[in-house]
Amino acid sequence: MGWMLTLSLTCAGNLQAAETARCEQVRLSDVGWTDITMTTAVTRLLLGELGYRTHVARLSLPETYAGLAKGKVDVFLGNWMPAQAALAQPHLDAGLIEKLQTNLPVVRYTLAVLQPGYEAGLHDFADIQRFEKELGGKIYGLERGNGGNKMVQGMIKDNVFGLKGFTLVESNENEMLNYVERAQHLGQFAVFLAWEPHPMNKRFRLSYLSGGDAYFGPNYGAAQVNTVARGGFSKDCQNLARLFSNMTFTIASVSELMSAVQESNTNRRRVAKQWIKANPQIVATWLKGVTHREGGPVTAIFGASLASTN
């Protein structure tokens, strides 16, 4: 009996060691959107304080989901649904990717128009084709492979809303926003992919278009953002899974993080660190039931005590 007990404890210890070794480094994907870049930066700093190593790879959305499904990426904080359903849902249904938490429950993602277009009557997806000349036959999107891009490309290909003559301009977040800013400065029309939270909602005089419910969801593209992980992550890395399950953001907090980076053009790591230190109560709720990687309770982050908020 004593020998069996010793063997059991040894096996348990080896299993724990194996889990610790496998989960010591957390591989995160950043698709380059400012909101996901900042929530990932906050997460990376927090994981470092908990004793974990991290690796952040800049990947496209298709690369991200392929990496998660193949176990080459551990966690992604930017699963916008339903916009990314075509890319993510098959892997979720197959168990190759698992949802850990809805980290931002109320967001928006759909096409928007600048004020000159809206004032001229461009209020709905069905109105876009009437203003083809003013729009130069262009709709501005994000990086190649983006879920929103694919939906717009599908509309153009199938001539939905009479968009057959339009071209989707694929670029990235910064290039798209720079074009929209120039168009606004010149008083021109522009239709583009837009979302909130994002500083663009204050920076631009924009209106979200109705009529895209079948593609972007009802209520002007109302959506949610989820944290997803490779299949089996919550079983392999229970401490990490508990942390990610606890982590939720608000539109106000994400907007604050994004604005601090975009408006002051400062280092995202510095902004993330300042935000963590300024929000000990939020961080304390994230750390409920979470231990340091090497064991023991987490009582301080960046030298700031969390005892008063536990």
In brief:
The chain is α+β, with helices and mostly antiparallel strands and 310 residues long. It has helices at residues 2-23, 34-49, 61-69, 85-94, 115-119, 132-135, 147-157, 173-186, 200-203, 213-216, 218-221, 233-236, 238-246, 251-264, 268-278, 280-286, and strands spanning 25-30, 53-58, 75-81, 97-114, 138-140, 167-169, 191-196, 206-208, 222-230, 300-301, 304-305.
Note down, in words, how this protein is organized.
The chain is α+β, with helices and mostly antiparallel strands and 310 residues long. The chain folds into 2 domains: 22-106 and 223-309, 3-Layer(aba) Sandwich (D-Maltodextrin-Binding Protein, domain 2); 108-222, D-Maltodextrin-Binding Protein, domain 2 (3-Layer(aba) Sandwich), CATH 3.40.190. It has 16 helices and 11 strands. It has helices at residues 2-23, 34-49, 61-69, 85-94, 115-119, 132-135, 147-157, 173-186, 200-203, 213-216, 218-221, 233-236, 238-246, 251-264, 268-278, 280-286; strands at 25-30, 53-58, 75-81, 97-114, 138-140, 167-169, 191-196, 206-208, 222-230, 300-301, 304-305. The strands form 4 sheets. Strands 3, 4, 7, 8 and 9 form a 5-stranded antiparallel beta sheet that branches. Helix 2 links the parallel strand 1 (25-30) and strand 2. Helix 2 packs across helix 15. The chain is globular, with a radius of gyration of 22 Å. 38% of the residues are buried.
